[in-house]
Specification:
single chain, 177 residues, elongated
């Protein structure tokens, strides 16, 4: 072999070594990146299939339950219709009596309101009368008031009754029917 042929052979061997090294690097990349990615994809795809399969099973169960509920509702619908109809008749029959009772209650409430107003006016009159009695008694006893150190000279009229003009309420008769 000549020197040129040897050089050519050595270059070919170097090129083959580089190609082998490139293939090993490519294989390592596949080993560390692509194969784990493929395994992860297979695992995720099988988990997705499992989820979809279980969801379809639950939907089938739900469909079966809804069908049972529809069957029960169809069988009980005539009874419910009759019950609602009888309730409607009962309410329609008792409505006039109920209106009469509500009218009576309204009259009683008006009477109670008037009685409360009358009681309030009477209580105000009693307070005013007590003030007048106190004023009338304290005037003759003013001699004692000047001797006793803890007494006041005169009792002022209560603020709430200074301009009070008692009015007589007009009572309304208690009406029953």
């Amino acid at each position: 072999m000549t020197t040129d042929e040897r050089k050519q052979t050595e270059q070919n061997n170097k090129g083959g070594a580089e190609t082998t090294e490139t293939l090993q690097n490519f294989e390592n990349r596949w080993k560390y990146a692509v194969f784990p990615a493929m395994i992860a994809f297979v695992l995720l795809a099988s988990f997705g299939f499992y989820l979809i399969y279980n969801m379809l099973q639950r939907m089938e169960d739900l469909s079966r339950d809804v069908n049972r509920m529809v069957d029960v509702l169809e069988s009980s619908m005539p009874t419910m219709t009759n019950d609602v109809h009888s309730m409607n008749i009962a309410i329609s029959n008792s409505l006039p009596a109920l209106e009469h009772e509500i009218a009576d209650m309204s009259k009683e409430m008006k009477h109670m309101s008037h009685s409360t107003e009358s009681l309030s006016a009477t209580t105000r009159n009693m307070g005013h009368n007590l003030w007048e009695v106190n004023k009338n008694i304290s005037t003759p006893l003013s001699i004692m008031n000047s001797v006793v150190p803890w007494s006041r000279v005169s009792a002022p009229q209560p603020v709430a009754y200074q301009y009070y003009q008692p009015s007589q309420p007009t009572p309304q008769p208690y009406i029953t029917q």
